[in-house]
Amino acid sequence: MTHNPTLQKEAQTMLPQNVLEYGREDNAIRETAAYAARRAEEIGAENVFNFSIGNPNVPAPAIVTESLMHIIQTVPPEVLHAYTPAPGMAQVRRAVADDLNRRFGTDYTANDLYLTAGASAALSIACRATLVAGDEVIIFAPYFPEYAVFAEVCGARSVILKCREEDFQIDLAAFEQAVTKKTKLVIVNSPSNPSGSIFSGETIDAMADILRKKEAEFGHAIYILADEPYRELVYDDDVTVPFIPNHYADTIYCYSYSKTLSLPGERMGYLLVPPKAADSRALYAAICGASRVIGNVNNPSLFQYLLQECVGATADLTVYKTNRDLLCAALTEYGFKMAKPDGAFYLFVKTPEPDDLAFCARARQYELMLVPGSAFGYPGYVRISYCVDTDTIRRSLPAFRALAEAYRSAEGTL
Ligand code: PLP
Predict the structure, then answer these.
(1) Averaged over 263-291, what is the pLDDT?
(2) Which of 157, 182, 350, 377 could form a disulfide with 337 if both were Cys (CB 3.0 to 4.6 A apart)?
(3) DSSP assigned state of 340
(4) In terms of Cα–Cα distance, which of 121, 122, 131, 108 is closest to 222?
(5) How far apart are the C-alpha atoms of 227 and 3, rounded to whole Å?
(6) DSSP states of 293-326 as a string?
């Protein structure tokens, strides 16, 4: 690191500009969380309503602690802490495959799975394994902001398609129009962060029909990149999350245990390349290559052992339904407009003024820490992460009511 300003400037221009920008870019979610932390120091955590970040608040299930203790006590250290095969230990991948096969009637094997550091690494690796400069990636807005980063660093172009405002479902006619000869990936996140919407089996079938037609027309595979860290966070009995590989063969599937097991810091997830996907063995080899390129040697071995013990378990996720119902009912009563989410742990609420950044600034006056929809490619909305304890939600309601009142009396917009 040089302290000479001229040399520093030169060094900056030598750095890849896109990567430099990604490092400098203000991430609205983390900025809001950092502001919430500062306010908590100033006025006390109990007076700040931090709805900024998707950090699960329920504890990991007891089996996690029990298994960790058991593993540490029983697996010899020279085995426990050794390098593992890059895709993960075969017996762990087999346990994941068995779990998928039990739930979805499939016949996957360990060879179809690659363990990754959460869904983020899975998505990034899948992009690197498939994309070349000039490719297009279809992303539905509102979206998880990292998608564009993972795709664009490979030289691909993000094609953003807005979901319908009334229910955050896909506009299939617009989707059909958007698929071109250059389309290589379509990223599908259901249940969605930030809208909480789930795409039905009929919607996925309709997308699959369109994609199969386009594949035949263009003569190459178009993969759905399914991103499902919220698969188990679904609150009503009549709602199911379709397992996309069973609807569309050319699917690359990304999963994470961050939300299901409440272990986001431990970076547990995987990529599945179903054998029926086009060029599946070459695709799997490309995934091994992409992982190697970014220096992934293997997922932490302790947490691979843990995964083997915990596969299929979940944290107690019931509090999220309580939170969703409480917040939806109260905010609707105060005059806010939203589509009731079916899953994940976010509410995506229409802002009473078009400028969502101004709305978030105003909400901060009531110590409500919310993330503007612009951060998810969907201005005019705000995301409220309700993965907090129910008491925080109850105590925040007067602030939401006062915020609504402020808009009603000042602008008549609510
Ligand atoms: N995809 C979506 C839609 C998310 O919301 C998140 C995290 O919040 C991720 C992927 C990445 O999750 P992780 O890397 O913790 O598995």
Answers:
(1) 98
(2) 350
(3) P
(4) 131
(5) 43
(6) HTT---S-HHHHHHHHHHTT-----HHHHHHHHH
Which residue type does 347 have? L
The reported pLDDT for the residue numbered 225 is 98
| Contacts (Cβ under 8 Å, ≥6 apart) of 79 | none
Mutate to test the pocket of ligand 1, among 258, 271, 303, 346 (most ligand atoms within 8 A of CB): 258
Half-sphere exposure of 235 (CA within 13 A, CB side): 18
Q: Give yes or no for residue 37 having a pLDDT over 80.
A: yes
pLDDT at res. 349: 98
Pocket of ligand 1, candidates 30, 125, 139, 144: which has the most ligand atoms within 8 Å of its Cβ, to mutate? 144
The pLDDT assigned to 210 comes to 98
> In the predicted model, what is the mean pLDDT of residues 78-103?
98
**pLDDT recorded at residue 1:** 46
Distance CA 150, CA 293 (A): 14
DSSP 134-179: T-EEEEEES--THHHHHHHTTT-EEEEEEPPTTT----HHHHHHH-
CA distances from 304 to 91, 93, 135, 294, 299 (A): 10, 9, 34, 20, 7
Mean predicted confidence (pLDDT) in 12-23: 87
Question: SS3 of 126, please?
Answer: helix
Count of CB atoms within 10 A of residue 5's CB?
8
Helix H or strand E segment including 185: strand 183-189
- Model pLDDT, residue 3: 61
b/e 346-366 (16+ beta carbons within 10 angstroms → b): bbbbbbbeeebeebbebbbeb
